[in-house]
Amino acid sequence: MRSLIIFLQQVNVEQKLKEAPDSQYQIGVLIGSFVPFIILAGIAYLLYYRAKKKEIK
Description:
The protein is 84% helix and 0% strand. By secondary structure, it is mostly helical. The longest helix has 34 residues, at 23-56.
């Protein structure tokens, strides 16, 4: 199951940028490629914050 998810998430950003019809599409591709990392960083921060908050009590 995990390998299927990894396979579906692999996107060739360089190829999409080369085939982009205009610069706005390129910006969208770049932003879209960073969104998963931003979400994961946010989740990691929330988990860290909650764990830190439990230690104090």
